[in-house]
Amino acid sequence: MQFPSGYGSHPPNYSAPSGHYSQVPNKAAASHLDNQYRASYYPTYYSSPAQNVMTPSVGTSVLNTQESQQLYNKTPHTVGSAEGPVQGAISSASYLHTSAQQSYSAFGNHYSTSVSSSVASQGFPLNSDHYAMPVVSSAVYPNVSYPPAAPGSVYGQAFTSQSLPVVGQVKETNKFSSQSTSVPHSLQQHVPVGYNTTLSTTSSAQSVQDNLCSNLTRSVAKVNNQINTGIVFLEKNLSLSISQKFAIPKAPNLNNFPSPAIDSSSTTSSASPVLNNYDALEGGGYPEIVSVFNTCGISFVLPETRSVTSSPVPAPSVPQTSKASKPFGYGYPTLQPGYQNAAAPTPVQPSNPGHHPGLQHYPQQYPGVNQLTSSIGGLSLQHSQQPESLRPVNLTQDRNILPVSSVPAPVPNLNSDLRKLNCSPDSFRCTLTNIPQTQALLNKAKLPLGLLLHPFRDLTQLPVITTSTIVRCRSCRTYINPFVSFIDQRRWKCNLCYRVNDVPEEFMYNPLTRSYGEPHKRPEVQNSTVELIASSDYMLRPPQPAVYLFVLDVSHNAVEAGYLTIVCQSLLENLDKLPGDSRTRIGFITFDSTVQFYNLQEGLSQPQMLIVSDIDDIFLPTPDSLLVNLHESKELIKDLLNALPNMFTNTRETHSALGPALQAAFKLMSPTGGRISVFQTQLPSLGAGLLHSREDPNQRSSTKVVQHLGPATDFYKKLALDCSGQQTAVDLFLLSSQYSDLASLACVSKYSAGCIYYYPSFHHSHNPAQAEKLQKDLKRYLTRKIGFEAVMRIRCTKGLSIHTFHGNFFVRSTDLLSLANVNPDAGFAVQMSIEESLTDTSLVCFQTALLYTSSKGERRIRVHTLCLPVVSSLADVYAGADVQAVVCLLANMAVDRSVSSSLADARDALVNAVVDSLAAYMSTASNLQQSMLIAPNSLKLFPLYILALLKQKAFRTGTSTRLDDRVYAMCQMKSQPLVHLMKMIHPNLYRIDKLIDESTIHVNDRVVPQPPLQKLSAEKLTREGAFLMDCGSIFYIWIGKNCDNNFIKDVLGYPNYASVPQTMTQLPEVDALSSERTRSFVSWLRDSRTLSPVLQVIKDENPAKTEFFQHLIEDRTEAAFSYYEFLLNIQQQVCK
Amino acid sequence: MESVVFIFSLIDCCALIFLSVYFIITLSDLECDYINARSCCSKLNKWVVPEVIGHAVVTVLMLISLHWFIFLLNLPVATWNIYRYIMVPSGNMGVFDPTEIHNRGQLKSHMKEAMIKLGFHLLCFFMYLYSMILALIND
Predict the structure, then answer these.
(1) What interface predicted TM-score (ipTM) does this complex get?
(2) Mutating which of A707, A803, A816 best tests the B interface, going by the most B Cβ atoms within 10 A?
(3) Which of A244, A1028, A1084, B38 has the smallest number of CB atoms closer than 10 Å to its CB?
(4) Which residue ranges in chain A fall short of pLDDT 50?
(5) Does the keyword Transmembrane helix apply (chain B) (predicted)?
């Protein structure tokens, strides 16, 4: 409570200049506010101050919010009227305010007309801030028509504060000017840096606030004296002067970089005030940027340290309190120049209301902010407590690091506008949401840089745009996207290569609003994920029809396994749901030691089987009638599907001529392209592509070398490339009980962009779980969306380059992925490097464009664009790390490594990835105790996930793993999208015997309980409980021996534990609350993914128990560390 | 006799130089997207064995004619060629594999290798030329 008094003593400095800072008082004073604030704040990680502003107000009173919002909304208008072009988006409006204000404060008289409005706008932030403290003022502020007097007073204060420092300022400025002149280059370079830091430090804003509250409470008492504030102000002035100087020359440059501008907007709008302040404060230190940076920048953290470090460098240290107060007033002036510039050149714009002007303004604001920020970036960390994602976590002591519910994707530290526009993390994720500025910085962070894509995901909302001219950059061919900037109405600047392009006439018309002259409101510019209907320019040939060819193994082995019944049945059920149009074609080939074709030509009374026994030189007996129109020959097809399962029941043929069958299929498909689905049950033993068993069963649990992870022959790879060239994909279903050399067979799908399904020890009656899985997979497989003759290109901002691709496809040229088919369950990953330093930009963008032919014969382009901030400090890189993406990318890299080098190498590389990155992190935080294993909050799950990876089938050693299982796990890692892969690596464990209505969510009128995530450790499994493990493709329900009988009765439908059968795959519908809850929870989990997983109930004696327990990765096994041991091991290596 | 050895080496070296240039041109075509990975790799793989043989022949010739220095100079490169050929994984389509050439900077390393070989062969060329002239004069 010192705070309030301190605050009171300060009032002028405080209240006036820093509207935003008033938040601090809020927090300190009103604890309930605080709570709310936190709640709203942390989930979003970097939520910008603007949000904060809103939330506190909500907390205090509903009225206030409303009023403040009103204010908010209206202010833009007033400003707009004063300025002209301003309208529209609230956020943009807010920028304007700030800029206006800035200009106001800086140039005072300049904006005399706009003063009132600007004041009002300021009033807004003040409003929220002030709530806690001066109730009266808040009451006053809400008024839309702002009493000029009040603002005046506020401003007057601001001015006074400014005027006070003037002397100091002059001095400082001189210093600065001299510096600036002497080192113009460095300045420019620094600008972006600053900017980046700002972005990252939006979080710092948060932290600042935290600090502030703590600092304020503590330090206000000490620092309170006016003198200090005076100093602060001086510093501010300095920063101002600096920023102005820089900003003015920079402004033109900025124009070149539209994206930064946008960012800056974010900073300015919400977060910036704080940051600006920061910058301003630090700005004083600007000349010594480097040194400051080094000395204190990196040591983020504890308040104590902070104060210690700050003491040697008085200027930055003082700011803490002062900063908070200053930034506002000062920040504005800085921005002002930009604003002026912006305003001057765009007299034409008034016609454009909202967005456009906003965009323009941002760029100019950018320079000032950037510069300041850049210098401060490091400092901010020091001064403030770290943002949530940088909070150090002592891994060896913190046992509960799992979040309550699923791990959220980190939100890039962008302003709220951009964040809203940004691509969904489900489709597009980057391992580092703060992109390091240089390769050197990236190397220092020891984290991989890459993207994880899920471009063809099933979307519920997807804007589809039909247009005759698809607007693209003329030099880099980037599609127009939300992150481009409009220089004026007729020109836009590409955000990837910075070329200025013309806006075509047609683009001026907005079909959504039916208005003309608003290119920035077109759906292409409003959505980061769009689908464009392509014109004939995007076709090399007329769009192909959907063509499906099924190649079925009918040897003795296959008949014995009994898969034919399931496949034919599924096909019959889904024949009408196969994606396609009236041209859809379908065909069948079966093979054992010969290849059988089926003539299904319309007009035949029954299907005709044609047997080709010359497998060394395969040919098509009747090329025209093997692939037939689905609709014309439907009856014949149904006849065939009904007959097929019984046709080969007495076969004695044990050989399998897969290679020749595939060659035949390729010949059949090559005129059109399409999809080949191959069902194989054993090792191919005849003809081209025959394989020999390479697995030594005694080596399955070897801890040393695992051989034969790569293909044995290049036959399948060549075939895949041939297929890919003819737009044909091969999907492989391997249903085998013995070794079938998946490593070789998988190539046929890998390089033709197919998918791979593997059902080990499949048998239709002995293994019902696998049979059910096949059924479900087939249903999904047959009915899901499909894109034909697709190509995908990933573009990124100049300076970044993609050097490695992961997934199923063929890389045709440097950045063009050829995908014969694309399906919604395919994920891709790419690794990137930073070839040129990104110092002159504050944002980088990535664009994926997937051009495909839909099953209806339409050529479409799906475009995703992701925008991320660039940062210059190591701490910010860590703050933005997306641990799930990092782990998935590492998994992909490890698969490559284990094939090209060895499994042991790959495992070492995984462990080293953790060791290196944590060591690098700990070396940046010098104040951490070296004896502990500390990770930033953003990476706290990193060791756990890596341990989980090491215990995955793909990479584990010592535990008996069949070669095919291992290879299949590797294939999945390469081709699964992140969501599925994470479930596979680290399953979710829930306790379901005591589902309660607390913390439930409502989905479609259903109540879905949300039990907390449990650690994957046997210690969590109590005999009294029942647990559900969600492994992505399979759900295990484990029932403890002493599980409550009511649960068993209600949920499982059996009287007691003993009577629950071994093979239970469904939950019965029992009319009881707990049953309903459990079922709604399970079906909710199911609905969240495309593959409907199989459910398996496990009792103690169940053979599937081992599977279940292998997923408890935190426990020790005979061959692998427990989590704690693993941590100790890492710690040892880190300290080495 | 010695002059014959060097005349032959000179011709062989010329062929290797042309081969290196061909490699470089084809790889840079791929880099610039003029040809696709598949055709590039099939073109180049055809010439991997001739290159290995061509170089091995010179090396052996130098050993036989007891030109130790030139032999030792050639030995590492010849060994590298053979090693590279032998170490191709069984699933790959040759030293140049179209599915991998765009990954992990392989294209760049292939290019670098071709450049280094070109330099080496040029060096050898002048050495052989000098030795040949010397031998002819001595004869």
Answers:
(1) 0.89
(2) A803
(3) A1084
(4) 1-385
(5) yes
The phi, psi pair for A464, rounded to 5°, reads -105, 125
Residue A210 to residues A27, A236, A580, A709, A838, Cα–Cα distance (Å): 8, 21, 57, 52, 31
CA A240 – CA B7 distance, rounded (Å): 77
Q: CA–CA separation, A921 vs A511, rounded Å?
A: 51
Q: How many CB pairs lie under 8 A apart between chains A and B? A: 57
Per DSSP, which regions of A141-300 are E strands?
Answer: none
A681: left (phi over 0), alpha (psi -120 to 50) or beta: alpha
Using the beta-carbon criterion (under 8 Å), do A803 and B92 form an inter-chain contact?
Answer: no
Helix A355-383 vs helix A90-107: crossing angle, to nearest 10: 70
Closest CA relative to residue A274, chosen from A433, A1, A47, A121 = A47
Amino acid at A745: L
Give me the phi and psi of A1066, to 5 degrees please: -145, 150
Cβ atoms A749, A808 nearer than 8 A: yes
For the stretch A55-80, pLDDT in tens is 333 333 333 333 333 333 333 333 33
User: Where are the domains positioned within chain B?
Assistant: 1-138
Nearest 10 degrees: Cα torsion A486, A488, A490, A491: -50
The whole-number pLDDT of residue A703 equals 67
CB contact under 8 A, A711 and B33: no
**CA gap A985, A887 in Å, rounded:** 9
Q: Which residues of B touch A816 (CB under 8 A)?
A: 33
Of the candidates A652, A773, A733, the residue with the CA atom closest to the CA atom of residue A1035: A773
Inter-chain residue contact B93 with A718, CB threshold 8 Å:
yes
The chain B residue lying nearest A901, using CA atoms, is B89
pTM of structure: 0.70
Cα angle: A809, vertex A814, A819; to 5 degrees: 20
User: What residues of B are in contact with residue A814 (Cβ under 8 Å)?
Assistant: 31, 33, 102, 107
Place of tokens 């300045």: A187
Residue A834 tokens read as: 């930073």
Give B99's Cβ-side CA count (13 Å radius): 28
In chain A, which residues have their Cβ closer than 8 Å to the Cβ of B98? 721, 810
Query: Chain A closest CA to B104's CA: distance in Å?
Result: 5
CB contact at 8 A, A963 and A865: no
The residue of B34, B35, B87, B99 whose CB has the most chain A CBs within 10 angstroms, and thus the best one to mutate to test that interface, is B99
- Nearest residue to A486 via CA among A504, A500, A470, A472: A500
- Name the residue in chain B with its Cα closest to that of A810: B99
* Segment (H or E) for A679: strand A674-680
Q: Which residues contact B25 (CB under 8 A, 6 or more apart)?
A: none
pLDDT of residue B53: 92
Distance between A816 CA and the closest CA of chain B, angstroms = 10
| Residue A1040 to residue A1026: CA distance in whole angstroms | 6
Structure tokens at A391: 């909070």
Is residue A791 within 8 A of residue A797, CB to CB? The reply is no
Are A977 and A454 in contact, with CB atoms under 8 Å apart? yes
- Asked if A810 has any chain B CB less than 8 Å from its own CB, the reply is yes
Which tens digit of pLDDT belongs to each residue from A1089-1124?
A: 767 788 888 877 767 778 888 888 888 877 788 888
Q: Which residue has the higher pLDDT, A2 or B81?
A: B81
- Provide DSSP, A769-828: HHHHHHHHHHHHHHHS--EEEEEEEEEE-TTEEEEEEESSSEEEETTEEEEEEE-TT--E
> Which among A711, A747, A805 is the nearest to B103, CB-wise?
A805
